[in-house]
From TrEMBL:
Residues 196-426 form the Concentrative nucleoside transporter C-terminal domain. It is a multi-pass membrane protein. Residues 232-254 are annotated as: Disordered. The chain crosses the membrane at residues 6-24, 36-57, 69-86, 98-120, 169-190, 196-215, 267-295, 315-333, 370-395, 407-428. This is Nucleoside transport protein. Coiled coil: none annotated. It is found in: Cell membrane. Residues 236-248 have a biased composition (Polar residues). Belongs to the concentrative nucleoside transporter (CNT) (TC 2.A.41) family. InterPro entries: C_nuclsd_transpt, CNT_C_dom, CNT_N_dom. GO terms for cellular component: plasma membrane. Keywords: Cell membrane, Membrane, Transmembrane, Transmembrane helix. The keyword Flavoprotein does not apply.
Length: 430
């Protein structure tokens, strides 16, 4: 069928994803449909502006260019220490995508240290709360985790979280599944089209709010609709960004428990801690990628003893196929997309990005745009454990038990947000 019919399926798919969220809603009678419709319109406009309007496209390309410029500068530091790693084509995954993190993470931490990033988060969050009519903290947190990542955002918001009721904490946990970290976008852009990586960030924010207010409607009184005093990331003893792709609950919990310093530490001490944190992040991502790829190969080898065609990707492809088809793809392409979706959910986004990076330019625009957007988040199984571990270090056991009982909702939220974002961007990418 032609693009017109695929577009109709794509549109239907977006409403099916909303319908799935409603089907599993904890309180169907109190879903704020006015806010849902408002935010859906905002996201459709955002997707059109960022991918289909010349000014928006130019802005996204400029932002992607800025990240790539920073990555290129980082190669000077890498080349000084490891010249033989940089002066080769193509560079391997570690050199091209991971080692630049050693410069980019400290750069964003410096922006936090001088107060610029907290100021930006505060005002963008206020604007989002005004437009969406959602509680102030939920809107603030959505913006905060875009820049800082989930465990870092949870850590600096710990005072607020301790004061919130368990039902709202479940919402925050579900939203945490759909975050990215600004400082890691440069790594994504070395493997995937940068303009779609950038476009995915604000679209994920709005969709995270849409999905969570349908899945878990919460009534917030004016007395509860406040934002407690928050600490900046410079006040966290260890940079919790090092757990973004880690599946370790203990590591996340230890970092969230890091002592909050009453005074801003000296700049160079802060910078040293930030660089060490960036180094840990590189090692954690590298360890995860090596382990997950090797384990996937081991599972495939065992499955193929039963049948030569039986692989984990094929199994996941069958499970995720209906959702991929609803994105407006033909059957063979939808199955391929579904395989990537399933692999990302059980491993992480870096595993899939590393696999498709050499051939991403050969994919059709619709497939390429939606795959990039779907992969641009931390939504996977290991992230659920990391978030629960982070909450364990912040709230009491009773509240943490409530969050732990909603692991299924957390994963469902992450999947639906990624599908919604991919589908909305796909409307304007053919």
């Amino acid at each position: 069928m032609g693009n017109g019919r695929y577009l109709i399926v794509n549109i239907i798919g977006i409403f099916v994803f909303i319908g799935v969220a409603f089907l599993f809603s904890k309180d169907k009678k109190h879903v704020d449909w006015r806010s849902v419709i408002t935010m859906l319109v905002i996201n459709i406009f955002l997707a059109w502006f960022l991918t289909g309007f010349s000014i928006g496209i130019d802005g996204v390309k400029a932002a992607a260019g800025a990240f790539n410029w920073m990555v290129q500068i980082s190669y000077s530091g890498i080349g000084f220490a490891l010249a033989s790693w940089v002066k080769v084509k193509p560079m391997d995954f570690v050199t091209s995508s991971l080692l630049p993190i050693l410069m980019i993470v400290p750069l964003f931490d410096i922006l936090t240290y001088i107060g610029f990033l907290p100021w930006l988060i505060k005002w963008v969050g206020r604007g989002l709360a005004f437009i969406t009519r959602q509680p102030k903290f939920e809107s603030f947190f959505a913006v905060e985790m875009m820049f800082l990542g989930n465990t870092e955002a949870l850590a600096v918001s710990s005072l607020q979280l301790k004061q919130m009721k368990a039902q709202r904490l479940v919402t925050i946990a579900m939203m945490s599944m759909s975050c990215v970290t600004a400082s890691i976008l440069g790594a994504y852009m070395q493997m995937m089209p940068g303009e779609y990586v950038i476009a995915a960030v604000p679209i994920n924010i709005v969709n995270a709010i849409i999905v969570t207010i349908i899945l878990n409607p919460v009534t917030v009184t004016p007395e509860e609709d406040t934002i407690a005093k928050l600490g900046g990331s410079a006040q966290v003893e260890e940079n919790t960004q090092t757990t973004e792709t880690s599946g370790s609950e203990d590591l996340a919990e230890d970092q969230v428990k890091a002592d909050m310093k009453p005074k801003k530490e000296p700049f160079f001490s802060f910078l040293g801690d930030s660089i060490l944190g960036a180094g840990k992040l590189v090692l954690i991502i590298l360890a995860n990628v090596i382990a997950f790829v090797a384990l996937a190969k081991l599972i495939d080898s065992c499955l193929q003893l039963v049948a030569p065609w039986l692989t984990m990707e094929n199994i996941l492809g069958v499970i995720m196929f209906p959702f991929a088809w609803l994105l407006g793809l033909d059957v063979p392409t939808a199955f391929k997309f579904a395989q990537f979706m399933g692999t990302k959910l059980v491993t992480n986004e870096f595993v899939v990005m590393g696999k498709v990076s050499p051939v991403i330019s050969t994919y059709a625009p619709h497939f390429k745009a939606m795959l990039t957007v779907f992969l641009t988040s931390f939504a996977n199984l290991s992230t659920t454990g990391m978030i629960i571990g982070a909450f364990k270090g912040i709230v009491d056991r009773k509240k943490n038990d409530v969050i732990s009982k909603n692991v299924g909702y957390m994963l469902l939220s992450g999947v639906l947000v990624s599908l919604m974002s991919a589908g909305i961007v796909g409307l304007f990418s053919w």
